[in-house]
Amino acid sequence: MSQHAVLDNNTHRDLRVRIEPNADLGDAIMSCVTVPAEFRQVQAHFPILFHKNQANGAFNAIALFGFENGENLFLEGGKWDALYRPLALSIQPFLIGRSADGDGPGQVHIDMDHARTGDANGVRLFDEGGQATPYLEDIASRLGLLDAGYRASEAFFAALRQHELLEPLTLEIELDDGAKRSLVGFHIIDEERLRALDAATLGELHEAGYLMPIFMALASLSHITELVARKNRREAHG
């Protein structure tokens, strides 16, 4: 369950949150949502795949951390073994809240039931004078980037659908011990269709700012091999 509250420097003056990577704090996940605006950073470390909502047909992008539910191969001994944490993971337990109609400025909300919230060993959100700490200011900046990325991504995915640039992915991997794992239910950029686009269409995608994240998503797929290697190391060490 979640209990969202608007963050307030009076009500939450002494509230602290845990910020370290930890499976018990919500990091034991095989993927998290990412947005095109951060594909450049994400592709340096993680495969970027696309997931289709079967209920409404909408797509979103995910950064892949493992091959099974609850598996995060970038959690190593309580540390995050990559130089980047995707925005959607790094802002927990915070989120942007808006009015029911979606208009107006966003507000910083916090999930009071999240495992990171309320621990005395955590980091303060406000100082003694009620001013936001540098940590909270950084979180607010990240939330703004993620919110803007979400809002801009709808048009990006519309362009991918328009030009039929997404194809289903079925990936079968065999581990060193002979065990097999499958990745199904995801999509990737259809490189063949991308290559077949004419110059005018490519120019339109570039003008809209979509061509770079498309290339970043394609480049990220090279990390699937590295993810398999992480899985093999994890299995070998129990």
Report on the structure:
The protein has 238 residues and is α+β, with helices and mostly antiparallel strands. It has one domain (4-236). 32% of the residues lie in helices and 23% in strands. A 5-stranded antiparallel sheet has the order 3-5-4-12-11. It has a 3-stranded antiparallel sheet with strand order 1-9-8, covered by helices on one side. A hairpin with a 5-residue loop joins strand 11 (166-174) and strand 12. The protein is globular. The mean pLDDT is 93.
Strand content: 15-25%
Summarize model confidence as the mean pLDDT. Answer: 93
Count of domains:
1
Helix content: 25-40%
What is the succession of H and E elements? EEEHEEEEHEEEHEEHHHH
Q: Please identify the structural class as seen in this structure.
A: alpha+beta
Strand order of the largest sheet: 3-5-4-12-11
Please outline the major beta sheet. Answer: 5 strands, antiparallel
First CA to last CA: what distance?
32 Å
Radius of gyration: 20 Å
Shape: globular
Count of helical stretches? 7
Number of strands: 12
Low-confidence stretches: none
